[in-house]
Amino acid sequence: MAREVGLASLGWKVTATDWADPPPPPAWDIAANIHHHVRPGSIILFHDAGSPGTHAQTVAALKLVLDDFQRRHLKTAYL
Fold it and tell me: Which domain does 27 fall in, by range?
């Protein structure tokens, strides 16, 4: 259906696991999961909803992930 209207269908490859039942996992745990599973070309799924307080861990993890990508010479893109 997406192709019929000129869009691409994408699937994620790595989940941030930031959606886990309260309390949310700590930022370093989210970042470590991504570090171990991401490869060039991976699409990472982050969540921006859920139980109160989950956003802070996701935002903190994103900073760690971006720092890790820079050290590993991985590039980011927005979809």
Answer: 10-71
- Residue 46 sits at φ, ψ, to 5 deg, of -105, 155
Q: 31: which residues sit within 8 A by CB, 6+ positions away?
A: 61, 64, 65, 68
Cα–Cα distance between 16 and 49 in angstroms, integer?
13
What would the pLDDT profile of 33-66 be if each residue is shown by its tens digit?
A: 999 999 888 888 887 766 666 688 888 999 999 9
Residue 47: name the closest of 35, 28, 37, 61 by CA: 61
Count of structural domains, the chain: 1
Asked if residue 38 belongs to a domain, the reply is yes
Residues 6+ apart with CB under 8 A from 73: none
**Contact, 56 vs 30, CB < 8 A?**
no
pLDDT (0 to 100) of residue 6: 86
